[in-house]
User: What shape does this take?
Amino acid sequence: MSDVIVSYVIPIAYIALAVAAFAAVVFPVLFMLQDIKKAKTAFIGIGAVVVVFLLCYLLAGGVATDKATEGQMKLVEASLYTFYLLLVLSAGSILYSTVSRYFK
Assistant: This one.
């Protein structure tokens, strides 16, 4: 039974994963090429996230440990700062939009 799984099912799963990954990359790109205005807003959003990450990277300390280099630790710390900042910003925007509806 395990020979069947290794021989047939796992390669089929890898093929399905490759097709899904290809579709996840290609179809959004095709959609953005069809509507340039929406693509512009998407690129602005991606650029904002990149700027936030760069600011967090500049703030990260990055102390080397016995298992990770200074650069690796700085990247991890910057990623955590970015996650925390985007989490607070998204929660704040949800809270603002919810509260502002009641005052309209």
User: Anything to note?
Assistant: The mean pLDDT is 91. The chain is about 85% helix and 0% strand. The CA atoms of residues 18 and 89 lie 34 Å apart. Residues 1-34 form one domain.
